[in-house]
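Listing S7. Sequence submitted for prediction.
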Amino acid sequence: MKSVHFLLANFVLLALASSLASASDPSPLQDICVAINDFRNGVFVNGKFCKDPKLANANDFFFSGLNIPRSTENQVGSTVTTVNVEQIPGLNTLGISAVRIDYAPNGGQNPPHTHPRATEILIVLEGTLYVGFVTSNQLNNTLIAKVLNKGDVFVFPIGLIHFQINIGPVNAVAIAALSSQNPGVITIANAVFGADPPIDPYALGRAFQLDPYVVKALQAKFGSN
């Protein structure tokens, strides 16, 4: 009888431990969400407010036009077309979104950036891309990179800096799925040198081992974007 009680007690403890281990807060779905005491002054929830599900219709779950090529006539030679909760309201709470990326020939790139809320899986539809991501300092900032051709797939883990560069002589196109309804994007150069108000150029100069006047020139360039 004692062995039965012992086994039962162990089962209960394991169940409690499992329950506690699986409990967690929901992932953030926006950059900031400052708490307030009076809900009447609230504007956002962690995500978006939901309409009455009885009023939902097919257009809430639909987007058209991802097949249309976009212009890549810009500084980086690429254009990202997003399909997240802003374009498809039905994605709210579903934890997924997509993008189309068009790259100009011979060096068009999706410059180094991160998605703070999503892992990305990229599928090359046309062209040849050199892609990669950099691990955190836990793994000594190791570059993990590969050349991709049509039909190839590559994964960029959540939060890590990654990039894609068209190394071919023709336009390239890729489709990516991301594990958040609102992944967010932090383009490194824009965020660091285009912050508003600007980060102190002497602090950035020391961080990047650059002359502060070089930093100021970069801030002038990226701040205008």
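Caption to Listing S7: primary sequence and predicted structure tokens for the chain studied. The CA atoms of residues 107 and 123 lie 18 Å apart. The two ends are 75 Å apart (CA to CA).
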